[in-house]
Amino acid sequence: MNSTMQETIIRRSDVMDRLTGLLIESLDLDLKPEEITEDAALFGIGLGLDSVDALQLVVGVEMEFDVSLPEDDMSVYRSINTLTDFILNNTVQQGA
Amino acid sequence: MQNPVLPIYKGVNAQTENIDGYDIITSTSGEEQEYSAIRNHIGITDRSDEAKFKLVGDGAADMLGEVLTGNIINLPENALRHTLLLDDAGAIIADVYVYNNFDYFLVRCSGHCRSLVRQQLQQHIGSGVEMEDITDQLAVLCLDGPYAWQIPVTLTGAAAAGLPVMHFMEARIADIDTTLVRAGRAGEYGYECVVPAETAEDALKHILGADPDALLCGRSVFDLLQRETRAFNLQCDIPNGESPLQAGLHWAIDFRKDSFIGKNAVMREIESGLSQKMVGLKMTSDGIPATAGKVYADSDEVGYIAAAGYSPTLQTGIALAYLKKEYAWAGIDFEADTDRGIGKAATVSTPFFVMKSMTIPIT
C-alpha cells in the first residue's frame, strides 16, 4: 500500500471510529462498533434512527468535529460513510 | 403457479423466462425505458411468484426468532422486517420479509428459495404453530418510482399517503381486497399491492387506469436498480458465498438475540474480524467493470468485482466489489478490470447517488 493511500485510510478511519462511537454513545444504541456497517442507512431500514435521534446526532457531530452540517442536504445523512465524506471535505486536515 | 397477469404483459410484448413453472416477466420495453420509468416516474412489476408462508399460532414469533437473524418478537403489528435465513455455517440461504399480521406471520422470499426456506421453517416448527405455503393464493404487484405513491392514493384513498416505510395496511382497489405494503427495492418510493391471485388481472387493470404513464416493467432491470441503491440482491451480490457481514448486512442481524441459525458462525467472524468487505466502486475512466474481474492497488490484486454495470444516472460504470479489509474504505483510488482492459476507479459511499424520491414529498 502506497503512502498516499495509507494516509487517506488513516484519516478516514479516525473520523469513522469517532463518528461510530459518538453515534452509539449519544443515541444509546445497543450495538458495538463492529456490529455497524459504514454504508447502512442511518434512518429507516438500517440503524432505524428517527427525527429526534437526528437532532442529537447533528449537535454531537458539530461539537465533535467543529463543522456545521447542512440542514437541507439529505445526502449527507444517508449513512456513516456519507457523514464521514462531509466531515473530511469540510474540516482542515491537522498538520496540513 | 400460472402468472396471473401474463395476458396483460403479453399485450406489451413482454419477455419471459419460465422458472419452476412460472413465467417470470424479465423485460418489457427494454432496460433503458424501464430504468427511466422507475427512476423518474413509476414502474409496475409482477412478483407473484415470490414464496409466501403463513405461520399461525402462539409460538410463531418465538419460532421465527429462533430461525431468522432479525428480531421478530419486537416486530409491531402491521409492520414488516427484512432479515436473513442462514445455514449453520452462517452462509446466506435467503433474505426474507416477515410481516406481523396480528393473527399470523407471513414470511416472503424469492421464488427460487421457496423449497429451501420451507424446509428450514418446517424443521423448526414446534407444537402450537402451523405453517401453510400460500404462494399460489396471492399475487404481488409492485409499484416503484418517485411518484409511485400517487397510484395507491388514487385507488385506495388518502390514508395510503400516511403509510410508513416497512408497514402495511388493508385497503381495497375497486372491490378487490388488497394488502398495501410500503416497501421497495429500487431506492425510490415503493409499494406492493398484494391481492388474491384470481383478482390480479383486474387489479393490474385498475392500477394502469390510475396512471396511464406508469410503465409495465420486468425484473431484469432491478439488478441495476438494486446495485445503484445497494439493496441486497441474493443472486448477484454474494457470488462466492460471501458472509452476511462481508456483504454489509449487519442491519439485518440482531446480535443481542440468544440464538438464531448460524449465530455462532456470525459471532466468530465478528470476533476474528472480517477478511474482506463489500464496497461501492465507481469508474473514473472509460469502461464498465467486469463482473468477476479483479481490483488492483499499485498492481497488487486486492479484491474482486461481485456485480457491475453501467449506471445511466451517473453515466459511468459502477460495481459492488469485495476488497481485502485493509483496503475496503470509501474515497480510495484503485484500478479494476473492465470491458476495455484495466481502468481507473474509486471506492465511494453507497447508495451511489441520491434517489429522486428523496426530493419529492408525498402529498
Q: What does the model show?
A:
Chain A is mainly α and 96 residues long. Chain A is globular and about 40 Å long. The mean pLDDT of chain A is 88. Chain A starts with a helix and ends in a 6-residue tail after the last helix. The longest helix of chain A has 24 residues, at 3-26. Chain A has a single domain, classed as ACP-like (Non-ribosomal Peptide Synthetase Peptidyl Carrier Protein, Chain A, Orthogonal Bundle). Chain A has three helices and no strands. Chain B has 363 residues and is an alpha+beta fold. Chain B is 21% helix and 34% strand. In chain B, the strands form four sheets. Chain B has a six-stranded mixed beta sheet with strand order 10-11-12-9-3-13. A six-stranded antiparallel β-barrel of chain B has the order 14-17-16-15-18-19. A five-stranded antiparallel beta sheet of chain B has the order 5-6-7-4-8, with helices on one face. The A-B interface holds A 1-2, 5, 8-9, 12-13, 30-32, 34-41, 44-47, 74-75, 78-79, 81-82, 84-85, 88 and B 82, 165-166, 230, 245, 248-251, 253, 255-256, 270, 273, 280, 297-298, 326-327, 329-333, 349-351, 354, 358.
Structural class of chain A: mainly alpha
Number of alpha- plus pi-helical segments of chain A: 3
Strand segment tally of chain A: 0
What's the CATH C level of chain A? Answer: Mainly Alpha
SSE sequence of chain B, one letter per element: HEEHEEHEEEHEEHEEEHEHHHEEEEEE
Using the alpha-carbon principal axes, give the shape of chain A.
Answer: globular
How are the secondary structure elements laid out?
The complex is a heterodimer of chains A (96) and B (363).
Chain A: H1 3-26, H2 51-65, H3 80-90
Helix pairs in contact in A: 1-2, 1-3
Chain B: H1 6-10, E1 15-19, E2 22-27, H2 31-40, E3 43-46, E4 51-56, H3 60-67, E5 79-86, E6 92-100, E7 105-109, H4 114-124, E8 130-133, E9 138-144, H5 150-156, E10 168-173, E11 176-182, E12 190-196, H6 200-210, E13 215-217, H7 221-229, H8 234-237, H9 263-272, E14 276-283, E15 294-297, E16 300-311, E17 316-324, E18 333-338, E19 341-348
Parallel strand pairs in B: 3-13
Antiparallel strand pairs in B: 1-2, 3-9, 4-7, 4-8, 5-6, 6-7, 9-12, 10-11, 11-12, 14-17, 14-19, 15-16, 15-18, 16-17, 18-19
